Amino acid sequence: MKIALIKGDGIGSEVINQGVKVLDAVSERFKCSFEYEEVLLGGRAIDETGVPLPTETVDICKKSDAVLLGAVGGPKWDGLAGNQRPEAGLLGIRKALDVFANLRPAMLFPQLKSASSLKEEILADGLDIMVVRELTGGAYFGEKKRVKIENGIKAWDMMSYTSYEIERITRIAFSIARKRKNKITIVDKANVLESSRLWREVTGEVSKNYTDVEVAYMYVDNAAMQLVRNPGQFDVILTENLFGDILSDEASMLTGSLGMLPSASIGAYKTGIFEPIHGSAPDLAGKDMANPLAAILSCGMMLKYGFDMENEASAIFEAVNSVLDNGYRTVDIMQPGMTAVGTEKMGSLVAENVQA
Ligand code: IPM
Ligand code: MG
To answer: Tens digit of pLDDT for each residue in 43-78?
Structure first.
């Protein structure tokens, strides 16, 4: 399998290096082989080539079987115009590979219950939510503009969706619900937004083909509240791009740390993008402090969703589980009585565990 590596900015390279370490352990144990090719995107691409998404990067990613991505962005590039920022590179590669379905599982490792921002009694039923976020539409990609007006400036980002875009992500969300607890909550703002009303119509039509799946609709403000009030009620959450961005960060904190959550972005072609949901955390960069588990678990998602390598994916998941069982913690999930380890060490522990 050919994997394009986008290490990116900030802690990106540190966490991706640990992911590669773990993948190498997988290939050793299961006798498969992964080939890596590093490409530039984001801040580093701006520094070295002048643009956030060089054409060469797009070409190589398209020819690869998967893209493994760290994180992009940082204060250094904050002053740039919107379409020249590191984030524009990230959005560009998502669009170029047409990865419209972003799967963000928020699950609680029982060992980390006390690291959650919620009281333990609220987590009594555990927490296992799959946020399915639409990734290539909505306000992120709609018309953006600024114009001068009489008394100042006006700016807009158009949140638009076509029925086709809604339909294809809805089918994916329903088929995922079928492999889980058969429940889907569709989150929108249909009391205000026309695009949300279209989401309701289209998802309602699609749901007729999945009568075995229980469907609920929820406004996004209520969903934000219900996630901290009673997260156990959710199985699959399906939502548009911007709402999904926000709710998935919220959901991640319920699991203890943003540093734990992986994601998979899949779409029409074979090449998916696999990345931790956390950002580049520039303040932690180069300090061996970042939690590499989200990146490592993203490698697990790559094996599962990208390569259909279920056993290999489980091996990663189980290795993370036993490293946590053995009491190792990075600083973001540190608890009394546990053993604090840095980024490198955490990666090595998981890799050793995969091989054991
Ligand atoms: C994410 C990130 C990105 C997004 C940023 C970095 C553009 O927050 O993957 O959730 O908003 O999609
Ligand atoms: Mg985000």
So the answer is: 999 999 999 999 999 999 999 999 999 999 999 999
The Å distance, Cα 149 to ligand 1 centre, comes to 30
Contact 175, 143 (CB under 8 A): no
State the closest ligand 1 atom to the C-alpha of 91, by its place in the atom list counted from 1: 7
Q: Which atom of ligand 1 is nearest to the CA of 245?
A: 10
> DSSP string of 33-76?
--EEEE---THHHHHHHSSSS-HHHHHHHHHSSEEEEEE---GG
3-state helix, strand, coil in the chain (%, to 5): 50, 20, 30
The alpha-carbon radius of gyration of the chain (Å, integer) is 20
> Of the residues 189, 235, 305, 332, which is catalytic?
189
pLDDT, tens digit, 9 for 90 and up, residues 205-223: 999 999 999 999 999 999 9
Starting from the CA of residue 102, give the closest ligand.
1
- CB-neighbour burial class of residue 154 (10 A; exposed 0-12, middle 13-18, buried 19+): exposed
Q: Taking the model in full, what pTM does it have?
A: 0.94
